Automatic annotation (TrEMBL):
Originating species: Natrinema salsiterrestre
Protein name: ABC transporter substrate-binding protein
Key word Transport present: yes
Compartments in which it is found: Cell envelope
Keywords: Signal, Transport
PANTHER family named among the record's database cross-references: IRON III DICITRATE-BINDING PERIPLASMIC PROTEIN, IRON(3+)-HYDROXAMATE-BINDING PROTEIN FHUD
Source species, domain of life: Archaea
One Pfam family recorded for the sequence: Peripla_BP_2
């Protein structure tokens, strides 16, 4: 295993041939091959990983797009991996996230014993997340990496916070775009041809959708609210800044690509979001409200948290004064944990919600149990063509 050319550890990629005592899987090539992703650097492999532990959904979506989704055996936050869009792609299936083990405790500690028990070939996550969020120290991360499975992931959902640990060498490392993740995981899973086809499809579809965004004068104002937080469940509404300030981050990519006009522009004071009450919401009075995370929060601890927020907006005497509520322009929003498949669907969804005259109306109500089917003639990208790439039938 190498970090920027420096060999670390004594074995090859776990799941191919690791130093965790596991037997190597059947070799799929006559020679070793390499794959690279910062901060871990270059991994040298003898065979393709047969199992992996995911993070919060983005890497799992990339794996699904590469035809590797069935290999996920656990995740850090399986509840945030939204799989509802896969139902729209013929022949594409993945494990139910509810069936996956969660490798974190309730208070966000790493269940290291479970990781040993699962014995995955790969941890498809950034090791620095274990340090920054889950309370692991560098020695524990090194142990997990050396004795359980190597890490191969990169935090690029949003800007990394101050004091980010930058393991293993303390040096800052780049952010990756969705196509760059596809390319690197494609190398690791020996699916580079599929990755190339997928990225070509993805870039073409995204370019086409972006090219149809109306001019500034025809755009509504938009507020991006957390789908779960409202004055009845929290201190108020959480308003997200849709502009992350980093072009390569993917968590709010659809808002950037659809060029939304933020009703709260200039009010974040350097923060990713702010908390407001009805008065602040009424003062901005956005034309459209998008409930960010809504696809995740429709089933949250056995309750529909998204519907609760919608009902609060529609039943409150103050909420009823909002233009977006009066004109029925409160919409379901996507998950920030997105790879190429989820991002394509969520960009299409947002385009229809914001610009129905150009893209066609988004069908259904925000409180519907299932995502609506869009007639073929109104779809913004070819589902069958995408599915054929994913399933290897292209």
């Amino acid at each position: 295993m190498e970090y920027g050319g420096a060999v670390v550890g004594s074995g090859l990629l776990a799941g191919c041939f690791g130093d965790n005592g596991s037997e190597p899987t059947e070799n799929t090539a006559d020679t070793t091959y390499t794959a690279t992703m910062e901060p871990v650097g270059t991994l040298e492999c003898e065979s393709v990983p047969q199992s992996f532990v995911g993070g919060w959904g983005a890497a799992a979506d990339v794996m699904t797009a590469l035809g590797q989704g069935e290999k996920i055996i656990a995740a850090e936050g399986p509840q945030f991996w939204f799989t509802g869009f896969y139902d729209k792609l013929p022949g594409v299936s993945v494990p139910d996230p509810d069936s996956l083990d969660r490798v974190l405790t309730e208070d966000w500690g790493v269940r290291k014993e479970l990781l040993y028990e699962l014995d995955p070939d790969l941890l498809a996550t950034d090791p620095n997340r274990y340090i920054a969020y889950y309370g692991s120290d560098k020695d524990e991360v090194q142990e997990i990496h050396d004795t359980i499975a190597p890490f191969f992931g990169n935090v690029s959902r949003r800007k990394r916070g101050d004091g980010w640990p930058n393991w293993p060498n303390g040096e800052s490392y780049p952010y990756y775009t969705i196509p760059e993740f596809v390319e690197r995981y494609g190398e690791l899973f020996q699916a580079s041809e599929r990755a190339t086809a997928l990225n070509e499809f993805y870039r073409t579809a995204q370019k086409e959708m972006r090219s149809r965004v109306p001019s500034e004068s025809d755009k509504p104002t938009v507020a991006v609210l957390n789908a779960r937080n409202n004055p009845e469940t929290a201190e108020g509404f959480t308003v997200y800044n849709p502009d992350t300030g980093l072009e390569k981050t993917y968590g709010k990519k659809q808002y950037r690509d659809m060029e939304i006009v933020d009703a709260f522009d200039g009010q974040y004071d350097g923060q990713s979001g702010i908390t407001i009450g009805y008065e602040g919401l009424l003062e901005a009075d956005p034309d459209i409200i998008i409930l960010h995370f809504a696809v995740n929060y429709r089933d949250w601890d056995g309750k529909d948290a998204t519907q609760a927020t919608v009902e609060e907006l529609r039943s409150s005497s103050l909420g009823q004064k909002l233009t977006a509520v009066q004109e029925d322009n409160v919409f379901i929003g996507g998950t920030p944990y997105q790879g190429p498949i989820i991002n394509l669907f969520q960009t299409e969804m947002l385009g229809k919600q914001l610009y129905p005259d150009e893209f066609g109306e988004w069908p259904g109500d925000v409180t519907d149990d299932q995502l609506p089917d869009i007639p073929a003639e109104e779809q913004l990208f070819d589902r069958d063509a995408l599915a054929e790439i994913i399933t290897g039938d292209n």
